[in-house]
Amino acid sequence: MSGMAxxxxxxxxxxxxxxxxxxxxxxxxxxxxxxxIQRAAVLLAVLFxxxxxxxPLGTMPIKSLQNAEGDFIGLANFASYISxxxxxxxxxxxxxxxxxxxxxxxxxAFLFAYGLTRTCMPGKKTLRALTLLPLFAPSLLPAISLxxxxxxxxxFKEVLMGASVYGPIGIVIGMCFWVFPHVLMIMVTALxxxxxxxxxxxxxxxxxxxxxxxxxxxxxxKYGLISAGFVAFTLVITDFGVPKVIGGDxxxxxxxxxxxxVGQQNFQMGAVVSVxxxxxxxxSFAADRLVQxxxxxxxxxxxxxxxxxPNPVKDNLFLAICLLVVSAILLVIGTAAxxxxxxxxxxxxxxxxxxxxFESVGSSWDYYFNSIEMAVWVALIGTGxxxxxxxxxxKGRAFEPVRNLLHLMAMIPMAVPGMVLGLAYIxxxxxxxxxxxxxxxxxxxxxxxxxxxFYTVCxxxxxxxxxxxxxxxxxxxxxxxxxxxxxFWRITLPVSLPAVLEISVYLFVNxxxxxxxxxxxxxxxxxxxxISVLNMDEAGNTASxxxxxxxxxxxxxxxxGLHWLLSQQILGLTQGWRNR
Amino acid sequence: MNLTKSFKTATAGLxxxxxxxxxxxxxxxxxxxxxxxxxxQLRPYAKAFNQQYPDIKIKWxxxxxxxxxxxxxxxxxxxxxxxxxxxxxxxxxxxxDQDMLQPYAPxxxxxxxxxxxDKAATPSWVGMDAWMASLCFNTIEAKKLGLPKPTSWEDxxxxxxxxxxxxxxxxxxxxxxxxxxxxxxxxxxxxGWDYMDRLHNNIARYTHSGSKPCKLAAxxxxxxxxxxxxxxxxxxxxxxxxxxIYPQEGLGWDMGAASIVKGTNNLDAAQKLMDFAVSKExxxxxxxxxxxxxxxxxxxxxxxxxxxxxxxxxxxDFEWSASNRxxxxxxxxxxxxxxxxxx
Lengths: 580, 343
Hints:
The complex is a heterodimer.
Chain A: H1 3-20, H2 25-64, H3 76-83, H4 85-118, H5 124-131, H6 140-150, H7 168-192, H8 196-204, H9 209-238, H10 241-246, H11 253-263, H12 267-295, H13 312-339, E1 342-344, E2 348-351, H14 365-395, H15 400-415, H16 418-429, H17 443-453, H18 455-467, H19 472-479, H20 484-495, H21 497-513, H22 529-538, H23 542-574
Antiparallel strand pairs in A: 1-2
Helix pairs in contact in A: 2-12, 2-14, 2-15, 2-16, 4-7, 4-9, 4-13, 6-7, 6-13, 6-23, 7-9, 9-12, 11-12, 12-16, 13-23, 14-15, 14-17, 14-18, 14-21, 15-18, 18-21, 21-23, 22-23
Chain B: H1 2-22, E1 29-35, H2 39-52, E2 56-62, H3 65-74, E3 83-88, H4 89-97, E4 101-102, E5 126-138, H5 139-145, E6 165-168, H6 174-187, H7 189-202, E7 203-207, H8 212-218, E8 224-228, H9 229-237, E9 242-245, E10 253-261, H10 267-277, H11 280-286, E11 292-293, H12 309-312, H13 318-323, H14 325-336
Helix pairs in contact in B: 6-7
C-alpha cells in the first residue's frame, strides 16, 4: 500500500544525499540530526506497538500450553477442551450464528446500499444517517431491547410463534442490528465504484435488467461483497455483548472465554478458547487482505460514474425496503429508551425516572463519568499516536523496512478480538516482574488497551488522508532544511484535520461503547458505563441497564453532532484551498 | 526552535498524564474488600462504617459468591483482598482449609449467638446473617398459564412446570450452591441427584446470579424463580405480583460471613472493619435484608417475608458442604451445565 510512495521517497532521499556530498559540512550534520530524530521516532512507534500489542498477544499461546501452576503441559488444555462436548458445541454454535447472521445482514445491507446508490429514491441522506445509529451504542443495547420486544413479556412476542428469543434467534437478530452499519458502509462504497459504460453496453445489447444485474452489477461489487462478508463474519463471531444478554443457554466461543476467565478464574482455558477464537478471525482477515489486493485495478481512469435514472416502481420499492430497515432500527433503539422509563415492566407501565437512579441498583453515575474520561483520553492520546505513526509510515524517509514493519503491525489489531486482547493484557501486565505492572488496574491500562484495540481503522484512515497530500511537501521541506516535524505540524496536520477529527470521534465512540476488551482489565476505581450495563443486566436490573445504554448512545450522538458543527467551522478555516 | 520545544513539552506532558492516571492517590487507608453482598447494600454498609472510621476507605470488589470465591482462590499466592465482608460461610470454610484467613477475635465477639462464628477461640471468620432459599412465584403469569402454586421442592418436578422454572447456577451463585447442597442433605446424595435430574427437565435456564431468577419471575419472563427470600420480598415491595414461597421439605440456607485475608498490609484497618462487622449497629443494617442475624434480639420482621423461616431452616452441615463443594460443583457441571447462561 505505502510501498510505492515510500520507495519513491527514500529513493529521492538517497539521491539527495549523493547530491549533497561535498556540500557544506555543517548542513550535512544538520540533516543527519533530522534523520536521527526521525529514526528514533520510527523506532519509538515500533516499540509502542511491540509492547502494547505484540508482547501481550504473545503470552496467549504460551498460557494456553500451561497448567494453572505455569508448567508446560503441551496441548493437554486443547485436548480437554475438544473432548468436552459442551465446550466444543460452542465452536459449532459460533459458526452457525456467524454464517446465518452474515447471510441475513449481507442481503439486507445489499438491498439498502443498492437503494442508496442505484435508485432515485428520496430522503437518501436521512436514511443513510439513521442507519448509523447502532454504531453509537454497545452491542448489549439491541439485545436488551429484544427482551422487551420479543421476550416472554415482549410487545411483539407473538411474532416468534412460541419460539424463545433467548438463544440463536435473539443472537442473530441482535447481531444483524449491530453489524448492519459496518457492512452497509462497505457495500455503499462497493456499489458506488461502478462504471456506467458497462450499463450502457448492456442496454445497447438489450440485456434484461436481471441479466445486467448478474453480469454487471454483482461482478463489479464482488470484492466489496466478499469484504463485507468477512467483516460481518468476524464481528459476529467475536462479539460478546449480544450472546451474553440474549443467548440464554446457547453457548458461543466469546461467552465461553468470559465464563472460563471471570466465572471460573480458569485463565488457561480462557487462553485456549482465545487461540481458537483467533483462528477464524485471522483467517477471514487474511482472506480479506488478499481480496483487497486484487481489487486495486477494478476501476480504470476512464470509468464514468454511474448516475441512476428515475424509475418510479424501482425507486418506491427500494424506498419501502429502506424504510422498513430504518424503522426496525428506530424501533429497537426506541424500545430500549422507552423501557428505561417504565416503572415496572409489564405490570406497571407508568413512566418514571427511577431506573436512572443507578446508585439504588448498586451501579453509579460515576461509572458514566469514568467512561467519558476514558473516551476523552483515548480520543486525544490515540489520535496523536496513530496519526503521527501513520505520518512516519507514509511520509517518513528513514528505515524503510522498519516503517513497513510498523504498517504491518498497525494492521494486526483488526484481526484480534477484543476479548482476546483484554485477556492478553491481564497475562502480560499483571506479571509482578513486568516493569509496566504499575499501570495494571488503572485508567491508563484501559486507555492503552482501547487505543490499540481500535488502532487499525484509524491507521488506515490516516494513511488514506496522508496519501492525498503530495509527497513534494516533504521533498521541498527537506531541501529547505525544515525539520520534518515542522512540516508535519504546519502543513500535514492542518491539511489532514478532517481525517484527524474523524479519527478522534471514532475513538471516542468506540471507547464509550466497547465491552469486550475492557471487561477483563477494569478495576473497582475504573468501572465503566458499558460494563455496568452488562453487570446490571446480569443482576436482573434490565431497565437500568437499558437506561445506561441509552445514556451512552446519547453521549456519542452529542459528540458526533459537535464533531459535525466543528468540522463545518474548521473546514472553512483550513480546507479553503480544496475549493479554490 | 519553538516548535521543537512545544513538541517536547507535549510529549513530556503525555508521559506525565499517563503516570498521573496510573498513580494511586492515597490519602486515607484503603481496604480492598471482596464481597458477594447485594449491590444495593454496598453503599449503606460502607457509609455506616465510615461514620465510625472516617479514615478508612472501602474499595469494594463485588461479584456473585462463586466468582468471588474462585477469584480469592486464584489469587492465593498473591492475595489482593484485605478483608472479606459478606461471603457465604461455606466459601470461607474452603478458604480456611487453604490457610488463607487471618484469625482475629473482634471486639464484642462474645455477644454474637454461638452459631454465627467459627468455633475456634480466635475465630477465622464471624457470621453476619443467614439467608435462605425460597421460591418467587409470579401469580399473574401462573394464572395465565394455569399453573398451580407449588408448595414443595418435589412439586417443581411436576410436568406442568416444564420450562417454567429458573434457578441460579451453583458454580457462580451462592444461592444456587446452597440449594444444591441442601437437596443433597435433605434427600440424601443419591436421591438428591435424582431430584435434580428430574428438576433439570423443567428448568428453562440456569442464571449467573442468585437474585436474577426472582427478578425474571417478577418481570414475568419466567413464572417461577428459585431464589432467596429477601430478593422476593423486596421485589414484592416494589409492586411485583409475587408470592414468596418456602418449600415445605425444608430450606437450604447459608450464612453471610466476614474475615481478614492472611497477608494483608492493612491489618490494623482490617481489624477495625471486623470490629464493626460484629457490632450491634452493623447487625441492625443486616436485619434490614435478613430475617435472621448474628446479634440476638436485633432481628425484626421484614415485610412480605413468610413468618416461619427459622422453623423451616434445615440443619445445615456447613463443614460437609464446604469440604464437598468442589466435588459437588464438578458433578453438577458435568450433568447440567449445557443449560447455563454465559458465565
